[in-house]
Design goal:
The protein is α/β, with parallel strands linked by helices and about 170 residues long. The protein has one domain: Molybdenum Cofactor Biosythetic Enzyme, Chain A. The chain contains six helices and six strands. The longest helix is centred in the last third of the chain and has 22 residues.
Length: about 170
């Protein structure tokens, strides 16, 4: 099955046109290389209500099974993407950000500072990625191979949990 995905970039400067969005297009390209159809993209400022509104709307439309954000996961007072994500999710998936942080720790000890979250709303999996293109790539590549299986289970497909794993 071809999964449909969306990519939401969270960045004040990119939303104001002061800096080009590099993370969103990179995440889109990685998803497309993995066989996902990216059907929605947008850039929003670091405003919790605005982020949550887009996440809620895109998930509730039912047109995407995977919704990735990039940006807003650090310690800056304006970094509120995890809070927006947690406010719209009905079930959490803590293993995904745990795996991303663990993989990134092999690259830099600063990975422990990521506040990325992940969860489920309806039939959509929402995952926060860092805003740095390098870190977004590292984090997405750490979890992307397992996401298809999760989406199969989420969408009621014939996911075989006992199948041979990597």
């Amino acid at each position: 099955m071809e999964w449909k995905a969306a990519v939401l970039t969270v960045s004040d400067r990119s939303a104001r046109g002061e800096r080009p969005d590099e993370g969103g297009p990179l995440v889109r390209a990685l998803l497309e290389q993995a066989g996902y159809a990216v059907v929605k993209t947008a850039v929003v400022p670091d405003e919790q209500d605005e982020i949550a509104d887009v996440l809620r709307r895109w998930a509730d439309e039912g047109s995407v099974q995977l919704l990735l954000t990039t940006g807003g996961t650090g310690f800056s007072p304006r970094d509120v993407t995890p809070e927006a994500t947690l406010s719209v999710c009905t079930r959490l998936t803590p293993g995904i950000p745990e795996a991303m942080r663990a993989a990134s720790m092999a690259v830099t000890n600063r990975a422990m500072l990521s506040r990325a979250a992940a969860g489920i709303r309806g039939r959509t999996l929402i995952v926060n990625l860092p805003g740095s293109p390098k870190a977004a790539r590292e984090n997405l590549e750490a979890v992307l191979p397992a996401l298809g299986h999760g989406l199969e289970m989420l969408c009621g497909g014939p996911a075989d949990c006992a199948a041979l794993r990597d």
